[in-house]
Amino acid sequence: MYSFNELKKAARKTAPDTIKKTRVAILGNCATQFLATAIRGYANLNNIGVEIFDADYNQIDAQLLDLASETYEFRPDCILLYLSTDKLYEDFLDMPMSEKAGFADEMIGKLEGYWNIIVSNAGCRILQMNFTDIQDNALGSFGAKTASSFAYQIRKLSFLLEEKMSARSDVYPIDLLGIQLHLGQHSFYDASLYYNAKMTIAMDALPYVAKSVIDVIKAMNGQIKKCVICDLDNTLWGGVIGDDGMGGIEIGELGRGHAFTDLQRWLKQLKECGIILAICSKNNEDTAKEPFEKHDEMILRLSDISVFVANWDDKASNIRLIQETLNIGMDSIVFLDDNPFERNLVRQMIPEITVPELPEDPALYLQFLQEQNYFEVASFTGAGSDRTAQYQAEYERKKLEQTFESIDDYLKSLEMVGEAKPFEQVRFARIAQLTQRSNQFNLRTIRYTEDEIEKIAADDHYLTLYYTLKDKFGDHGLVSVVILEKKSDKELFVDTWLMSCRVLKRGMEEFTVNKIIETAKASGFEKLSAEYIPTAKNKMVKDIYKTFGFTEVDDGKYEITIADYKPRDVYIKESE
User: Fold this and answer.
1) Is the pLDDT higher at 364 or at 246?
2) How large is the angle between the packed helices 428-437 and 450-458, nearest 10 degrees?
3) How far apart are CA 282 and CA 285, in angstroms?
4) What backbone torsions phi and psi does residue 223 show, to the nearest 5 degrees?
C-alpha cells in the first residue's frame, strides 16, 4: 500500500486530457481535505481520472440545501458522503437520555433525506461511507443490549444503513468499517488528529480509504475483473498431483489442506457471483482433472470451471487461448500461481493482466487476496452463476464449428432463436449491469444505474429494446441493449447500443439493427442518427455503422434514412 506522502506527491500531478474524468464532490461532517488529497493521489498513481471538489468542514446541509452551492455548480458525477462516527458520538452524548433510544432511526431518516435531495437536485450517484464502531464502555459489555447506549445505536445504524442502501441502485457503499476492522482502531484512528484538526481517519489509514473509493469508481466506470485463472499444484492444493498422486495432495484435513480448501470455497463463491473460473496448469490433462472428478474433499469440480487448459506449453500462450475463448479483455483477468517464475513470465508477456504476488505461505493466500479487493462491482443481480454453463456450451459450439466447411452451414446448425422486447422491470438490474460492464461492443459507453434504467423505460422520450438469444446448446440470456432517444417527431438517436462479445459473428448484430429499424419505422420515424465515441476498448465497433449503410456526417456521427435501409439476412429465428 502507498504511504500518504506518496499520495500527496502524486496528487499534485494532473491526469492527461485523454483520460475520462469522474467528478467527485466530498461532503463530510469532519475535516476531509487530506482524504481528498489521498483520493486524488491514488487515482493518479493508478491512471484513473478524477476531479474533486472538497467542501468546507461540516457543510453538508449548506451545500445540499442551497441550489446555488459550489457542489451543484461543480456538476458532480457522484457525491461522497462521510458522516463520521466520532461526530455522531458527540451528538449522541448531547441528547437527553429519553431520546437516545431513537438515535439510529433519526439518523437513518436524515441520511435518506440527503440521498433524496442529491438525486433530486444533482441527479448523480452517491458514495456513502458506512460507520466505524466505537465502544464507549459507559456500560461495559452490557451496552450491547441496551438501546440507550451508543454501542447499541451505532450498530443498529449500521444495520439500517445496509438495509436502506440495498433498496436503492443510486447509492454505493464505501466500507469504512471493513478498513477499521482490517487495520485495528489504533491504526485507523488518531485521537490527537481528531482533537487538533477534526480529522477522523489517521494518516496511515487514508491510503486504504482512498483505494476503497477508487475501487468503487472504477467499478462504476466498468473497470472490473471478470475472470480468475488458477494454477493447480501448490495453488489449489498442496503438493504436485503428478508426483504425489491423489492420496498425497494436501486438501481438506491433510497437512496444510485446510488453507487450500478455504481458498477453493472463496473461489466457488466468486463463481456463484458471476466471476469466471479457468484453469491453466503445466500438467497432463487427465492427471490435472482427476482431483476435480474423484477427490472427495475438493470443493471445486469440473462443472465450476469454464475453460480447463492443462498441457506443457508456456502459461502466457495458454492464458491467451483462455482469453480468446472467453472473449474478454486481458485487463479483466486475475492470474493466480504459486511459482514466482511463472508469475514473472506472465507479467512480462502480458502486461495488462493482474498477477498478484502471492505470499510464500499458502495459509496467507486467502487473506491476501481478500485484502486486494480485486472483484469490486457496482451492481449485483444474483444471476451470474449460470455463466460457467454458458462458457462450457461455447466451447462445444467452437468444437462444432470446426466440423463445418462454411460459416453459413454452421450458423444454420445452431438453430438460433432471438427475442427483442421493450425494457421490463424484471430486466432492469441486468440491463443496468450490462451498461456498467460492457466495454468492447459498446458504441458510446454510457453507464446507467438500475434507477436510471427504470426512469428511461417509463419515459415517453425513449424507445428501448433488450435482446436475448438461445440455440441448441443453451440460453445466452440477455445479450444486447438498445436505447433510442426521440430527437424530434421524425428522428431517433441511438443513445446506447451494446452487445455481449460472446455472440459476435453469429448474426446478432444484423438481428439487432433489423429490429431497431423495424421499431423506428413502426413508430413513424424517418431518420436514425447515431454516434461512436472511441475508448481504449471499443475499437472493434468503430466502423459498424458504415457496415450497416449509415452515412458519416461528422467525425463519429452517423445517420441513415429509415426507408433506405435494406434488412440483413440472418439465421436467427425471431421468438414468437
Assistant:
1) 364
2) 120
3) 9
4) -90, 85
Q: Which three cell numbers stand for residue 461?
A: 422520450
Cβ-proximal residues to 351 (8 Å cutoff; 6+ apart), any chain: none
**CA dist., res. 298 & res. 300, Å (int):** 6
CB-based contact 450:379 (threshold 8 Å): yes
pLDDT > 80? residue 404:
no
Contact by Cβ (8 Å): 143, 137: yes
For the record, the C-alpha cell of 286 comes out as 487427465
All three cell numbers of 324, joined, read 480468446
Average pLDDT of the residues of the chain: 91
Q: What is the side-by-side strand order in the sheet with 227-230? A: 307-311, 276-282, 227-230, 333-336
Phi/psi class of residue 198: alpha, beta or left (left: φ > 0; alpha: ψ in -120 to 50)?
A: left
Range with top average pLDDT, 141-155, 312-326, 346-360, 393-407? 346-360
Q: Say what the pTM is.
A: 0.74
H helix or E strand, kind and range, residue 7: helix 4-11
What are the tens digits of pLDDT across the range 138-155?
A: 888 888 888 999 999 999
Contact 145, 159 (CB under 8 A): no
User: Which cell numbers in the block locate residue 361?
Assistant: 505461505
Q: Which residues of 560-569 are buried (b: 16+ CB within 10 A; e: fewer)?
A: bebeebeebe
DSSP state of 567: P
